[in-house]
Amino acid sequence: MVLVVWHVASQRSVLVPSIASVLDVLRHPFREPPDLDSSPLAAGVLVSILRVVLGFGLAILTAVPLGLWIGRSSLARDLFSPTLAAIMAISPIAWLPVTILIFGLSSPATILYGQESWRADILDQLRFAVVGVIWMSAFFPIAMNAAAGAQSVRQSYIETIQVLGGTRWQVLTKAIIPSAAPSVMTGLQIGGMISWRAIVAAEIFPGTQGGLGYMISTAQHQGSLRYAFAALIVIGLIGLALDGGLRLLSWRVGRWQVKQK
Predict the structure, then answer these.
(1) From CA 111, how far away is CA 126, in angstroms rounded?
(2) What does the mean pLDDT of the chain come to?
(3) Separation between Cα atoms, residue 51 and residue 130, nearest integer Å
(4) Binning pLDDT at 50, 70 and 90, where does residue 116 land?
(5) Whether residue 202 has pLDDT greater than 60
(6) What's the structural domain count of the chain?
(7) CATH code, 212
(8) Secondary structure (3-state) at 173
(9) Is the per-residue pLDDT at 127 higher than 70?
(10) Phi, psi dihedral angles at 130 (to 5 degrees)
(11) Do the domain assignments include residue 242?
(12) Is residue 21 part of a domain?
């Protein structure tokens, strides 16, 4: 049905590219766009994925420990929970001007090569401002879910390990982390999908270069909408794969809890 509507719309409007032209872009992802000031589709996919991987990875490394601490410490819960809940309500894209103000146009390439950052194009595309937005978009749902999971750990598990002479580290690794894992995975699912949506919007922001969002914005301004449609299709497919992968991982991590009940 969607393809039929698309075909009819392309026949009646010059603004809607034909299905064949979009498929041509998808079939040649490494081809330099002849009528668009942008890198090939494959390069845009690589840049967007790298940005999300870096920001999402940083969010996991920082949010999970903080969330577990909040869940097991009443002091940390009183200090951080209201703030996290309030900040999580803010759209991640709203933080982009703030991160640009803080980081400017700096990237790993500017640290390594200074004024010659162009020598490492991929690293130069990983602007800290954009990665910071991805980090913030994933950080809060991961932290909140990790806190909820840690708070729900059965006290009997902890007491059993302590009675047997277990250390704090063993309580953490044998009781708290395994019990909180399903909630953490739920946070990863939410954070991952928010991150993927946020990166596309962040790449449309003026001053950002490279990525699928940049390709969409450039295609719109230069009238080469077949590239915009192709990028949208790729965005949807990657989002679907990301959601499926995280759901599968969450199911595998949480199987033991289902059996326990």
Answers:
(1) 12
(2) 83
(3) 8
(4) low
(5) yes
(6) 1
(7) 1.10.3720.10
(8) helix
(9) yes
(10) -70, -45
(11) yes
(12) no
222 in Cβ contact with 37 (< 8 Å): yes
Distance of CA 239 to the CA centre of its chain: 10
Chain position carrying tokens 């601490």: 69
CA proximity to 125, closest of 232, 44, 17, 15: 44
User: Torsion-angle region of residue 253: left (phi > 0), alpha (psi -120 to 50) or beta?
Assistant: alpha
Q: Which residue has the higher pLDDT, 133 or 255?
A: 133
Distance (Å, whole) CA 1 – CA 109: 46
Supply the pTM of this predicted model.
0.85
Express each pLDDT in 65-97 by its tens digit.
999 999 888 888 888 888 887 887 888 888 888
Helix segments in the chain, DSSP class H: 2-12, 19-27, 41-72, 74-88, 96-103, 108-113, 121-125, 128-151, 155-163, 168-171, 177-204, 212-222, 225-260
Are 237 and 212 contacting, i.e. CB atoms less than 8 angstroms apart? no
The answer to whether the CB of 142 falls within 8 A of the CB of 63 is yes
Q: Which domain holds residue 205?
A: 44-255
The pLDDT tens digits for 47-65 are 999 999 999 999 999 999 9
* Cα-Cα-Cα-Cα dihedral sign, residues 63, 69, 70, 76: negative
Rg, the chain, Cα only: 22
- Mean pLDDT for 36-43 is 84
